[in-house]
Amino acid sequence: MSSSTQHSSTADLVVKEPKRPSGLGVRHCQAFMTFICLVLAYSMRVNLSVGIVAMTDNSSNPAFTELPWDSSTKGIILSSFFWGYLILQVPAGEMARKFGAKYLLFGAMLICSVFTMLSPIIAQNLSWTVFFMTRVIQGLSQGFFYPSINAFLAKWAPPLERSRIFSFVFVGTQFGTVLTMPIAGYLAASPWGWPSIFYCTGLCGVLWSVVWLFVGANSPDTHPSISDSERHYINSALVNTSAQNHKLATPWKSVLTSVPLWALLLTHLGQNWGYWMLLTELPNYFSHVLNFNIKSNGLVTALPYLIMCVLTAVFSWIADYINAKRLLSLNVSRKMWNSIAHYGGAAALLALPLVTSVSGAVILLTTAIALNAGIFTGYLTNHLDLAPNFAGLLMGITNGFANITSILAPTVTGFIVSDETSRYEWLVAFYISAGAFFIGNTIFILFGSTDIQPWNKPSEEDSHVKRDEHVV
Question: H/E/C letters for each residue in the chain?
Fold first, then answer.
């Protein structure tokens, strides 16, 4: 083959999007609704992180029941959500591809919301093991969110807008945290007490479910009011996503032997250990070591996630600009952003022994969490790079198994930190999280890839095509 022919063949692989419709479109409405979905999902996930402080210490609001849960019991309860969360991830990814994400998201949100509103009644009137099971059920229902939304975005997010849309939607996880932690702190100290944390977050989830039934759509082709120009723009841009992907057979052997997928899984394991240890345990650290009261605790704990939201927006715009201008290959870009998140976070945690002031500790912990914004333009978008047709399944696999560390991190921390006022014991827990970030990202750098995998397309199509490194 001549060099000119080779050049032409390579050029054909580069995504050339049609003219983008001006203004906001239906795809932005869908992105906004899934953003709110994750805001509420995380509000119901992290409400217990602040709530459990007030539930087990009523000094700030003596009118409400103080539950006799010790440190190890609290660690087990904080991990309970993830026991349910990991079970349905892979089935959820397959179901979202075959049946669409709309009704899966509706049902999952409704179930989670109802059990959230039942939580205070169960906690005050039944044993902690029953409350544990309530959180497990909430985890089961939320197991549908990440895989379903990932499969959903594979149908709605054009490649050159992917970093922005994906980051906007998934920053809902941080925004939900930012909103919930200070509000939960105020509610816990209010006349309505800590039960109101669960009532408010659960009610919001029910309201979202109702709205979603009317505005959600599985794809541009099934949306009743999208313009022809926007539908054509989205469908023409998604050259590696089949409109008939619900009919494709799942290439299980190829998926399970994919080196880039294994790298992605191990990176996800490291991320979830570090992130969830900090998210679930930071309120306890601020309360017992840094001596913040329940109101200040919620505000200070929310600060890192607020900064993370801002950085996510900044990083995603820069990432899309870099990709559109081809300043870096997609492979280098993904790994650069992920390194900022994980190596940066690890360095901040390792620096904690060097500071002795409260403000210094807050700054370092804020830095460790805020830099995690890089994951949205790093490894977390990589599922869509590898196989858009099976994006929900890949997210189900990595997010499901990675939540083993989401369970282990707060549980192990609960046993390491037997004295919640001991700074030394907390530092040991932070060192372990730094190690998880470092190891996970190193594996991603060495073995991760942004090439479209051969098994993304049906066998009758050209299954040996690799994505050009610059393609978004």
Answer: CCHHHHHHHHHHHCCCCCCCCCCCCHHHHHHHHHHHHHHHHHHHHHHHHHHHHHHCCHHHCCCCCCCCCCHHHHHHHHHHHHHHHCCCHHHHHHHHHHHCCHHHHHHHHHHHHHHHHHHHHHHHHCCHHHHHHHHHHHHHHHCCHHHHHHHHHHHHCCHHHHHHHHHHHHCHHHHHHHHHHHHHHHHHHCCCCCHHHHHHHHHHHHHHHHHHHHHCCCCHHHCCCCCHHHHHHHHHHCCCCCCCHHHCCCCHHHHHCCHHHHHHHHHHHHHHHHHHHHHHHHHHHHHHCCCCCHHHHHHHHHHHHHHHHHHHHHHHHHHHHHHHHCCCCHHHHHHHHHHHHHHHHHHHHHCHHHCCCHHHHHHHHHHHHHHHHHHHCCHHHHHHHHCHHHHHHHHHHHHHHHHHHHHHHHHHHHHHCCCCCCHHHHHHHHHHHHHHHHHHHHHHHHHCCCCCCHHHCCCCCCCCCCCCCCCC
Q: Which positions ≥6 away from 460 have C-beta within 8 Å?
A: none
User: Which of 91-95, 116-120, 354-358, 363-367 has the least mean pLDDT?
Assistant: 354-358
Smallest Cα–Cα separation from 155: which of 99, 238, 223, 233?
Answer: 238
Identify the band that residue 204 occupies on the pLDDT scale cut at 50, 70 and 90: very high
Tokens of 16: 């050339």
Which token pair is 124? 């005050």
* Distance of alpha carbon 249 from alpha carbon 254, whole angstroms: 12
- Nearest by Cα to 361 from 301, 412, 414: 301
Distance between CA 16 and CA 105 in Å, rounded? 32
Give residue 11's identity as a one-letter amino acid code.
A
Stronger pLDDT, 78 or 339, i.e. the higher one: 339
Is the model more confident about 301 or about 416? 416
> In this model, does residue 313 exceed pLDDT 50?
yes
The most confident of 6-15, 70-79, 264-273, by mean pLDDT:
264-273
**How many C-beta atoms lie closer than 10 Å to residue 171's C-beta?**
25
Structure tokens at 18: 């049609």
CA distance 151 to 316: 20
Can you tell me the distance from the alpha carbon of 317 to that of 332, in angstroms, rounded to the nearest whole number? Answer: 16
Over the chain, what is the mean pLDDT?
83
CA 126 → CA 79, 96, 119, 384, distances in Å? 19, 36, 10, 44
